[in-house]
Amino acid sequence: MATEVIEILDTDGVNRALTRIAHEILEYNKGVDDLVLIGIRTGGAYLATQLQQIISTIEGQEVPLGIIDVTMYRDDLCSRSDLAVGLTDIPFRLRDQKVVLVDDVLFTGRTIRAALEAVIALGRPQNIQLAILVDRGHRELPIRPDYIGRNIPTAQNEQIKVDFNDLNIAQAVHLLRN
């Protein structure tokens, strides 16, 4: 049986969602003071870079950007052999910062739990907020995003795929049905 591909967001839709998220982040945090973005490798890191650029355009000031790899904090590390450890690059202090964790798709919440542990291991931020492009439901942990681009309820056997171009810019979001 062929996989059915349904476009949920096109390039303009992705850009509108990220722009709205950027405005919500700025409104909630009353600007960019003590604000940092940390993208979860890889899709979240790409989106955090896009959010950084949008916020910079809006505020005229660049927000510090970090990238975190959560592989070693995953609770399924022993059962998976396909996980490569990536680089964590956070070139700023976390203490007393307002951290916005960014990821592309929120599903069970396990990746976010791992990211929270990884961030806290590096410092004690003032708070940690969560920005997600797509929330597809099916949480296994009590994780709730602060900023959501799009809620897309899915069946367990469906997948959400965020497509990035060669420059790591999000181009579309697709629902894959088997």
Helix content: 25-40%
Could you please say which CATH topology applies here? Rossmann fold
Shape: globular
Q: What do the pLDDT scores average to?
A: 93
Radius of gyration: 16 Å
Largest sheet: 5 strands, parallel
How far is the N terminus from the C terminus? 7 Å
Strand order of the largest sheet: 3-2-4-5-6
Class by SSE composition: alpha/beta
Tally of alpha and pi helices: 3
Could you name the CATH class? Answer: Alpha Beta
Tell me which CATH architecture applies here: 3-Layer(aba) Sandwich
Which spans of ≥5 residues are poorly predicted at pLDDT below 50?
Answer: none
Could you give the order of the helices and strands?
EHEHEEHEEEE
How many strands appear in the DSSP assignment?
8
Number of domains: 1
Strand content: 25-35%
Description:
The chain is an alpha/beta fold and 178 residues long. The protein has a single domain (4-73, 84-177), classed as Rossmann fold (3-Layer(aba) Sandwich). The protein is built from three helices and eight strands. It has helices at residues 11-29, 43-59, 110-122, and strands at 4-9, 35-40, 65-68, 98-106, 127-135, 147-151, 159-164, 170-177. The protein has a five-stranded parallel beta sheet with strand order 3-2-4-5-6, with helices on both faces. A three-stranded antiparallel beta sheet has the order 1-8-7. A hairpin with a 5-residue loop joins strand 7 (159-164) and strand 8 (170-177). The longest helix is centred in the N-terminal third of the chain and has 19 residues, at 11-29. The protein is globular, with a radius of gyration of 16 Å.
